[in-house]
């Protein structure tokens, strides 16, 4: 039997990180899970409240830029770092990109330095089972035209400051592998949706506005395309890469589920009409000034992870969106308690 692993999760109080902790606990009831999170506006301890009584779960309220995190490597025999912590919202990065550089670039480099320091043995090798998993995004590839998909070899061409900071972090992870052989994988996923996502992001925003019968802002002509994946499917893909990914490799993750933003809003309004309020109307959709540098289309070619590691998305969009809307309806207090 495989030895019990110790996982260091960064950003585990955020949207995907908290979903991942729940997923990981189901997969490995005995694993030690250390969650490092600075609890920015995006971090919410309610997301992982059910872990509080778990004796093998430890929350550490720290910034990933903090050099004293090194102590964790002395306290625990950390096997896997799953690095979610980031400034994640494109619109905020357009307003001010400083925090994106600090957290996404410098914070990642701080973690890489600590992992190398703790994991490298005197002969320059690394013990088996160690891995740094960089959770990245399709936005590092830039924007697609009407055809084609992003593959792992698509050149990096980030447009927003957020995407530039993630691309930079990815390159540092790659550099630590190329230079120091630090065991790593990079995953690049498309847009996630599901429980615990902050209302600054499109899908929760539309659900909240719809429930309150308020105007729903749609940027530009509303025809920008994103490839949506249910968050639990992303968690399963990350878990698959941790356990089976070949060291040094990059894996794209996507839902083969491209939709225009307008289509997304109409689908959500339709679910709300059926479940909450039959009088809700599309007239709530309000076209607003476009996002600066707005990427037109993202689409992921996920054949590598499908063919080499056997992962594929499990949740059809119709089911995932129904579940998500239901979750927000049932968790109105969670919405009201959000910071910022
Ligand atoms: P999120 O904004 O919901 O959560 C980010 C978490 O990181 C929060 O808990 C926050 O408190 C924490 N954090 C921020 N700065 C920190 C710092 N300096 N030190 C410690 N903790 C800090 O983000 P998310 O949507 O869950 O995204 C998680 C990761 O997945 C990010 O790296 C993001 O780039 C990537 N990603 C997200 C999506 C998506 O659709 N949301 C898609 C692909 C990749
Ligand atoms: O009010 C809105 N109106 C609107 O039309 C908002 C908030 C968004 N949009 C559009 C912009 C995008 O085309 O909807 C699309 C989705 O926007 P976001 O939810 O902000 O996501 P996006 O910019 O695509 O980035 C997300 O997916 C990739 C995450 O925030 C990133 O962290 C991830 O890397």
TrEMBL record:
<protein>
    <recommendedName>
        <fullName>dTDP-glucose 4,6-dehydratase</fullName>
        <ecNumber>4.2.1.46</ecNumber>
    </recommendedName>
</protein>
<dbReference type="Pfam" id="PF16363">
    <property type="entry name" value="GDP_Man_Dehyd"/>
</dbReference>
<keyword id="KW-0520">NAD</keyword>
<comment type="similarity">
    <text>Belongs to the NAD(P)-dependent epimerase/dehydratase family. dTDP-glucose dehydratase subfamily.</text>
</comment>
<feature type="domain" description="NAD(P)-binding">
    <location>
        <begin position="8"/>
        <end position="324"/>
    </location>
</feature>
<dbReference type="InterPro" id="IPR036291">
    <property type="entry name" value="NAD(P)-bd_dom_sf"/>
</dbReference>
<dbReference type="GO" id="GO:0008460">
    <property type="term" value="F:dTDP-glucose 4,6-dehydratase activity"/>
</dbReference>
<keyword id="KW-0456">Lyase</keyword>
<dbReference type="InterPro" id="IPR016040">
    <property type="entry name" value="NAD(P)-bd_dom"/>
</dbReference>
<dbReference type="InterPro" id="IPR005888">
    <property type="entry name" value="dTDP_Gluc_deHydtase"/>
</dbReference>
<dbReference type="GO" id="GO:0009225">
    <property type="term" value="P:nucleotide-sugar metabolic process"/>
</dbReference>
């Amino acid at each position: 039997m495989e030895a019990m692993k110790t996982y260091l999760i960064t950003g585990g109080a955020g949207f995907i990180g908290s979903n991942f902790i729940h997923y990981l606990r189901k997969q490995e009831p005995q694993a030690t899970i250390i969650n490092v999170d600075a609890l920015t506006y995006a971090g919410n301890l309610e997301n992982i409240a059910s872990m509080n009584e778990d004796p093998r779960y430890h929350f550490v309220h720290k910034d990933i830029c903090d050099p004293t995190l090194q102590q964790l490597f002395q306290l625990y025999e950390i096997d896997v770092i799953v690095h979610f912590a980031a400034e994640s919202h494109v619109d905020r990065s357009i307003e001010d990109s400083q925090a994106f550089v600090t957290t996404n670039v410098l914070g990642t480099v701080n973690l890489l330095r600590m992992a190398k320091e703790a994991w490298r043995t005197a002969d320059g090798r690394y013990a088996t089972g160690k891995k740094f998993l960089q959770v990245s995004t399709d936005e590092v590839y830039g924007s697609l035209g009407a055809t084609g998909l992003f593959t792992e070899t698509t050149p990096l061409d980030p447009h927003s400051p957020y995407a530039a900071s993630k691309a930079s972090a990815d390159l540092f992870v790659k550099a630590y592998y190329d230079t120091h052989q630090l065991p790593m994988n990079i995953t690049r996923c498309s847009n996630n949706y599901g429980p615990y996502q902050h209302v600054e992001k499109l899908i929760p925003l539309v659900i909240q506005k719809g429930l309150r019968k308020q105007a729903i802002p749609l940027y530009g002509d509303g025809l920008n395309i994103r490839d949506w994946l249910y968050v639990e499917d992303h968690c399963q893909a990350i878990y698959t890469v941790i356990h089976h990914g070949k060291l040094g490799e990059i894996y794209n993750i996507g839902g083969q589920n491209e939709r225009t933003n307008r289509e997304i809003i109409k689908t959500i309004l339709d679910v709300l009409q059926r479940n909450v309020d039959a009088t809700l109307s599309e007239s709530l959709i309000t076209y607003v000034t476009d996002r600066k540098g707005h990427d037109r289309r993202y689409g992921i070619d996920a054949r590598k992870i499908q063919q080499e590691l056997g992962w594929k998305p499990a949740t059809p969009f119709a089911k995932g969106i129904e579940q998500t809307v239901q979750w927000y309806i049932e968790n109105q207090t969670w919405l009201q308690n959000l910071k910022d």
